[in-house]
Amino acid sequence: MIERLLPAYVACADTYEKDAPPGSLYPEEARLVEAAVDRRRHEFAAVRACARRAMATLGLPPAPVLSGHRGMPLWPDGTVGSMTHCDGFRAAAMARASDARAVGIDAEPNEPLPPGVWEMISLPSERARLPREVEDPLIHWDRLLFSAKESVFKTWYPLTRIELDFDEADITFRQDPATPTEGTFTAELSQTAPGMPRSYEGKWLIGDGFAVTGIVLPALPGAAV
């Protein structure tokens, strides 16, 4: 599904499988999760198997993807990317730095957020704009909002190293009239950073029981290859 959200120059790979192929981690990757519970290790390996498939699509050799602060993926030189995983779905998206400054993707189960989370992640303006679940039973807008903000954060943080709070991104969704389970969104940030836009455009869709969102910041003119 992720490839439907992103430009053709972004290589995407996803899987509905729980586990990665045996031995799919590089030793330096395996060390990062050697003390983790089985579920975490499986997610970590499966999403990196997706990353390797995306590398192959770009014509790049396989390489380890280590983790930085807050688990931020550390992509090979000259590339940018993003990863996501939730129960039943893992995905990676990757582009050459000559094509994109940053990529942010997120997938969530298309089901309501746990009690109390909606109030924590949403702004009054967002709550006023979003339809009630009973009016649109196909889309859990609270979960989609969470996913969109995660995609914003994954786009913003690798370029700024500044953390965003949920109340610093104001999301407006638009539905495709022909296909109401997909559309676009705009995120307006209250945070600023040198060289970074205040407004971000993304896409979303609902399918196979998941809500997925994605953002790409195109490379600036004259970006190095």
* Termini gap: 28 Å
Quote the average pLDDT. Answer: 92
**Strand order across the largest sheet:** 6-10-9-8-7
Which residues form runs of ≥5 with pLDDT under 50?
none
Helix content percent band: 25-40%
Give the tally of β-strands: 10
Which class best fits the helix and strand makeup?
Answer: alpha+beta
Major sheet description: 5 strands, antiparallel
Q: Helix count?
A: 5
Q: What is the 3D shape? A: globular
Order of helices and strands: EHHEEEEEHHHEEEE
**Approximately how much beta-strand content do the residues carry?**
25-35%
Rg value: 17 Å
Summarize the structure.
By secondary structure, this protein is of the alpha+beta class. Helices cover about 25% and strands about 30% of the residues.
What keywords describe this structure?
single chain; 225 residues; alpha+beta; three-stranded antiparallel sheet; globular
Q: What features would you describe in this structure?
A:
There is one protein chain. Helices cover 25% and strands 30% of the residues. It is globular, with a radius of gyration of 17 Å. The mean pLDDT is 92. With 225 residues, it is α+β, with helices and mostly antiparallel strands. It starts with 10 loop residues before the first strand and ends in a 7-residue tail after the last strand. The strands form 3 sheets. A 5-stranded antiparallel β-sheet has the order 6-10-9-8-7. A 3-stranded antiparallel β-sheet has the order 1-5-4, with helices on one face. A two-stranded antiparallel ribbon has the order 2-3. It has helices spanning 27-32, 38-57, 117-121, 124-129, 141-160; strands at 11-15, 66-67, 73-74, 79-86, 89-96, 100-109, 169-175, 182-189, 199-207, 210-218.
